[in-house]
Amino acid sequence: MASLGAVEAAAVRGGSLFQPLSAEDGEQRPAEIESLCMNCFRNGVTRLLLTRIPFFKEVIVSSFTCDSCSWSNTEIQSAGRIQEQGVRYTLTVTSRQHMNREVVKTDCATARIPELDFEIPAFTQKGVLTTIEGLIDRAVAGLEQDQPIRKAKDEEVAAKIEEFIGKLKQLKEVPSPFTFIIDDPSGNSFVENPHAPQRDDALLVTRYRRTPQQAAMLGLEGEEQDEAAADSAEDLRNEVLQFNTNCPECNAPANTNMKLVQIPHFKEVIIMATNCDSCGHRTNEVKAGGAIEPQGTRITLRITDPSDMTRDILKSETCSVEIPELEFELGMGALGGKFTTLEGLLKDIRDLVERNPFTLGDSSAPGKAEKLQEFVGKLQEIIEGKTKAHFIMDDPAGNSYLQNVYAPEEDPELSVERYERTFEQNEDLGLNDMKTEGYEAEGAPGQ
């Protein structure tokens, strides 16, 4: 109620509610309010001044003095709201004149001098309107306050603090350049630019987005969560999600990890991996993170060097694989979606052939096992780089990818062909009966 009375009193005096902060302005008269002294519990006087800092904003400066015990206290509060972004002022102090720059430090701001490894943490001091020299003087006064007690209890600690106080006092003479940093998540702190509105080469002002921890510290956690909802996709890229499922082998409870990954020069994919602690079964799968492409994709790689085996490869569940030299073709759906290297995919194909139940035991036909062993041997030669071959990926959905090691330049051994899907391919993808345009008009008469 006292602050409201001060505002009303200022309004009654006429003119603008917030007067510019200027030493020549004699019309700035603070409102005086009788207040309780928290030191001697007698009445003192609080003076409130609503003022405007040039090139900054409106602030409320309050000063309390007690005639009984001579205790005094000053404080500054922002008269506006918390800003949308935090602010960081970095000033390179090179002369004694820089020490006279006005500084607004709110109670949630942090002040640092990296050269001395000195920091005033947030919420350890009340907001203040002062100069850089005044801020250092306040720090010195705070350190000297308990020095007599420290000397009585621990002389070694007191001596180290006394040495540090000497460094702070020497800093006011600016014997060498140092850096002064004010970091305020609320965006309401300020360091004077005497050249305003021109740019100050010694002062760097950086605006930044608050972290969730800083938002919670300012009591804005709910608002920041609403803003963070818009960046959920960015959060997914930096976080591994986990959900409960059952093992496909033993049906025991297991965990599936899922992560959104951005493949360079391609698109986003979703990688899912399941590990079963009961039977040790492990499986992984890749899903395209985007829509079906307007055209199909046929990727052809000429394998000429063992280093080709290290190329990243994304095989979607709609992609078929062909190796003409081996007269081999793997249809869509086989092996599911895979995000691995070319070597990893060829080894998966080799394991799939070797585990074929129709080539084992009584089910095997005469001569078939020998042919498959011959095929596995030729495939192993390709994996080891002893045999050159063509590796072809045909994906009607356009969601498969093979790394171009020369990107963004053309790869001489890699060709990517776009083609129009046939009716049968659209039917397999379920696109023939899917209507995404004009369905609103058809449903309107029946509404």
Q: Provide a count of the helices.
A: 11
Question: How much of the polypeptide forms β-strand, as a percent range?
Answer: 25-35%
Radius of gyration: 36 Å
Number of strands: 25
Roughly what percent helix? 10-25%
| Outline type | elongated
Instruction: Compute the separation of the termini in Å.
Output: 58 Å
- The low-pLDDT segments are 1-18, 20-26
Largest sheet: 5 strands, mixed
Provide the structure class.
alpha+beta
pLDDT averaged residue by residue: 80
Features of this protein?
five-stranded mixed beta sheet, five-stranded antiparallel beta sheet, elongated, 447 residues, alpha+beta, single chain, 25% helix
Give an account of the 3D structure:
This protein has 447 residues and is of the alpha+beta class. It has eleven helices and 25 strands. Helix 2 (132-145) runs antiparallel to helix 4, helix 3 (147-153) packs antiparallel against helix 4 (155-171) and helix 8 (342-354) runs antiparallel to helix 9. The longest helix has 17 residues, at 155-171.
Fold blueprint:
Elements: H1 2-12, E1 19-20, E2 31-36, E3 43-52, E4 58-65, E5 72-78, E6 86-93, E7 102-105, E8 110-113, E9 118-120, E10 128-131, H2 132-145, H3 147-153, H4 155-171, E11 178-184, E12 190-191, E13 203-208, H5 212-217, H6 221-229, H7 232-237, E14 241-246, E15 253-262, E16 268-275, E17 282-288, E18 296-303, E19 312-315, E20 320-323, E21 328-330, E22 338-341, H8 342-354, H9 368-383, E23 389-395, E24 401-402, E25 414-419, H10 423-429, H11 439-443
Parallel strand pairs: 1-3
Antiparallel strand pairs: 2-3, 3-4, 4-5, 6-11, 6-13, 7-10, 7-12, 8-9, 8-11, 14-15, 15-16, 16-17, 18-23, 18-25, 19-22, 19-24, 20-21, 20-23
